Amino acid sequence: MSSVAASGSPLENLVLSVDNLSLTEGRTDIRNRQDLSPRNYLLAANGGPLPGFQETRINGLPQYLAGLANSTLVLSSLFPQTTWGSNSLGNGGNFHGSRLQPGTRSFVPNLNSLSGPVLDEGKSFAVSNLGGIEYSRVQNQEELNNVRIFLGLLQGDSFVNYCSDRDGSITLHGLLRLRNPEITREVYKKVLVLSSRGVPIVCELMLDQHGWHVFAELIDSLNYQQLKLITYEITKDLYPFISLAVHRHGSNSIKKLIRALSGSSLISFVTNNLCAAFYLIMTDRTGLYVVSECLKHLSAEDNKLLYEAAISCCLDLAIDHDGSIALIRVINTIQGLQRYRLLDILSTNAVFLSQDPEGNYVIQKVLSLDNPVFTQKICHQLRGYYAAISLQKGGSHIVEKCLGTEWKSWVIEDFLSNTNTLLHVARGEFGNYVIQKAFKVTKKSGSPLYHKLLLRLQPHLSILQSGYGRNVFNLITGGQSVKKV
C-alpha cells in the first residue's frame, strides 16, 4: 500500500479510520454453511454402533473418551447463524457473515499509510514475507500509547472484521512481530472474548483466510501461560475443534499450534481431541494433514495415543481413500512394539485388504518394507487366493510383489494347481502381467517351476494368441505364430 499523507494528528487519523468501518447490527448475504467434510459420521472399529463423544477432565486437562451412541453423529456448525464467505472488503465488496453494511467500502487503517510519529516511515518497516509491512520497532512510549489506543478502538466484531481484511491482517501481523509484550497482551485479550455470534474470536480468526495469519503470528508471540489459555480455548469443546481441523484455514491454524506446542506438555490438549475424533479426522482430506503434522513434529511419546488410535481402527482406515493415505503415513513413522502390532494386524487381514480398491495400497506398502516376518505372513495368508487377486488391478500388483520374494514358489504352486485357472489368469487384463512376472523370476533363478509353467501353457498357445493373453504368448514363443495343425 502506498503511503498517504494525513492532514490531522496521527491519533485523529486512527480514530477517523476506525470510524469508517461502518458497523451495523444487521447481517448481509448470510448463507447456511456446514464447515465439515461430507463424511460427518464416525464408524466403530469393529463395524458396530457409531461412537459419540463424552467429555471428561483429568487434572484440569480436557480428555475425551469415545462412548456409544445409537444414532449417526452429525456435527453442529461452528457458526450456526452466520457464515464466513468472501472476505474481500475492497471497493464496495460485501463481507458475508459480518456486520458490515452491504455496498459499504471499508477503509481499513494501516499504520504504514499514516504520517507523523506513530511509525517512522523508512526506518520502522520493511517488506515482510506476507507481502505487507513488518514493523521493526516502536520508536518511543508515545508511539506505543498511540498503538495501544488504536487497538483499543477495535472491539468484538470490529476486531474480527479488521483481522479478516488483507491490509488489516498485515498491519496486525506487523505489530505482533514487534514482540512487544503490551501489544501482544492487547491482541491476546481480544481473541479470548466471544464475538456477536457466540464464538470465541480466536476460532473465527483461525477459519479466516487472512485472520489465520494473525493467529499464527500471535501464537509465536505468547508466553507459556497465555499459550496455555489459548490452547484450552481452542480445544475445550470437541465439536468446534473438529470443525477447525477439517477446514482449510482452520487446519493450517491447528498445524501452526502443533508446531508451537511441540516439546511442551500442552500438546496433550490437541492430541487428546485428535484421538477422540481420530477416524473422522483421518478420513477427511484436510483433517488428515493435522494428524500428519503431529507425526512429523512430535516425539514418539507424544504421539503414543495417536498411534494407539491408528492401531484400533487401522482396518477401517485402510479401506477408505483418504484414510489409507493417512494410514500409510502412520506406517512411515510408527516404531517399536506399536509398529509390530499395526503391521501384524494388517498382515493377518491381507486377503481382505488385497481385494479392496484402497486396502491393496496398504498391503503393497507393508510388502515394500521388506520385513521378512510380515512379508512371509502376507504370502502365506494369500495362498489359495492368488488367482482371484491377480485378476484385480490393485491385487495384481500385490501378487507381482510376492513373486519378487523368497516365497514366490507359493504363488506359482497356486497357479499350477489348476490349469484352467492358470489359463484364465494368463488371459486376464491384469493377470497376464502376473504370469509374465512368474516366467521371468523363475527363469532368472533357474527354478524348475519355470518349465512346469511352460508345459502347462504350451498346449494352449492358440488360445493365448488373442486378447490380453497375447503378451504371455509372445513371451513364450518370442513372437512367433503357432501353426494350426
UniProtKB/TrEMBL annotation:
InterPro entries: ARM-like (IPR011989), ARM-type_fold (IPR016024), PUM-HD (IPR033133), Pumilio_RNA-bd_rpt (IPR001313). It comes from the Eukaryota. This is PUM-HD domain-containing protein. Pumilio repeats lie at residues 344-380, 414-456. GO terms for cellular component: cytoplasm. Residues 122-480 form the PUM-HD domain. GO terms for biological process: regulation of translation. The keyword tRNA processing does not apply. GO terms for molecular function: mRNA binding. The keyword Cell membrane does not apply. Keywords: Repeat, RNA-binding, Translation regulation.
